[in-house]
Structures are given as structure tokens and as C-alpha cells.
Amino acid sequence: MFTGIVEEIGEIIRIERGSRSAILHIRCQKVLEGTQTGDSIAVNGVCLTVTSLKERGYTADVMAETLGRSSLGTLRPGSRVNLERAMPADGRFGGHIVAGHIDGTGIVQEVDRDETAVWYRIMAEPQVLRYIVEKGSVTIDGISLTVAKVTGKDFSVSVIPHTQANTVLSDRGAGDLVNVETDIIGKYVEKLLLPQETPQKKSRLTVEYLAENGFS
């Protein structure tokens, strides 16, 4: 589990592409502290397993499913990525509950600056927007943010300059693809409240069954 508080901006130094999967070579420093092979690190909000450790970075495998459902397929050598280690049991909960399993991608429609913040308006699919509520939490490229506005086709977040400067949001502009993870609590509540369809069981009580058991 993660909290959406980015610890470090890493850099993609090499990508080994297979027919359907890829291996990311990521240069970083801070997230290597205490990290072992097999640990989880979120890369732009996507939970990936550390497969090998290097002196100044690590590698992570990306499956075809992940490449197809996230923006990781657009990464290139030199791309900057948000990095966050999984939260330890005794860690501080600075953001909100983030699973690292994104719900889809969004497209930045507009970036607008005002006196104290930077506004990002992001278009997303209806199946993503249904779980996004005003003043609720959303994760954009691994960053825990508060939703400021929601419409039928997009949503907006207001970001303080510190967050923009210390994450890859500073690289994002109109037309860019971003990873979106909605608040996991809303999805569980919906699942529990919806009536569950149960298959109709075929009754064993037939005329033949009754005859075989002494009823006539």
C-alpha cells in the first residue's frame, strides 16, 4: 500500500522491450534506502516489483496488462517518473490509501495558473469519473491530490507550487497522458451495496427422484 506522497523523481535510463512486456531501468537514490529485491515501488502510481538493485538504481518488470492499461508504455529513456516506496507499518499516513493499481488513464486538457496554485483539468472515461467526487481524493501519476471540480467528462485538481515542482506534474501539459487511481474505499462500498446475482440452482426434486425414494 502507498499514500500518494512522492519521495523522489527518478529517471528512466534504459528500457528493454519484449514482444509484450518490458524491463525498466530506473536511476534513483532515496527510494533505494532499505529496499530489497522483491519490494514494491510505485512508478508514476503503478505498483512494480523491484527485480534487481544497482548502485544508483534498480530494475522492474512491466507486464503486457500494465503497459496496456497505464501510461508506462509511453516512457522513453530520459523520462522522469514519480517514485514512492510501499508504506511501512510504522510510517506516517500523509496522503490517502493508494493501492498502486490504477483504474485507467486520463488526458490533460488544460493547465492554468492562478496566484497560489496550478490547476490541471483532466479528461477521463465514465468508468473512472463515476468514482471521482468533489473534495474527495484521487491519485494522478502516483500523487495524492484533492478533487476540486468534477463534470460529466473531466475533473480538475488544484496543486500547490511545491507539489508541482517536486513531482513530474511540472512536465505535464495539454495532451499528455496520466495515470489515474480513484479512491479505493468508494469501489468497495459500491461492491458491498450492490445486490449480488446468485445463480439459480436446479432443484433435484423431480417425479423420478420421488419415485426412487419410495414416494408415489
Description:
The protein is mainly beta and 216 residues long. It is built from 5 helices and 12 strands. A 6-stranded antiparallel beta barrel has the order 1-2-5-4-3-6. Strands 7-8-11-10-9-12 form a 6-stranded antiparallel β-barrel. A hairpin with a 4-residue loop joins strand 7 (104-113) and strand 8 (118-123). The chain is globular and about 80 Å long.
What is the topology, as strand order, of the major beta sheet? 1-2-5-4-3-6
> What structural class do the secondary elements suggest?
mainly beta
Q: Which value, in Å, is the CA radius of gyration?
A: 22 Å
| β-sheet strand percentage | 35-45%
DSSP E strands, number: 12
Our count of helices gives: 5
The percent of residues in helical segments reads: 10-25%
Instruction: Specify the biggest β-sheet.
Output: 6 strands, antiparallel, barrel
Shape descriptor: globular
Distance between the first and last residues' Cα: 63 Å
Unreliable segments of 5+ consecutive residues: none
Compute the average pLDDT: 91
**Quaternary form:** single chain
Output the helix-strand order. EEEEEHEEEHEEEHEHH
Write the layout of secondary structure elements.
Layout: E1 8-17, E2 22-27, E3 40-43, E4 46-54, E5 57-62, H1 64-69, E6 80-85, E7 104-113, E8 118-123, H2 126-129, E9 137-140, E10 143-150, E11 154-159, H3 161-165, E12 177-182, H4 184-193, H5 207-212
Antiparallel strand pairs: 1-2, 1-6, 2-5, 3-4, 3-6, 4-5, 7-8, 7-12, 8-11, 9-10, 9-12, 10-11
In short:
By secondary structure, the chain is mostly beta strands.
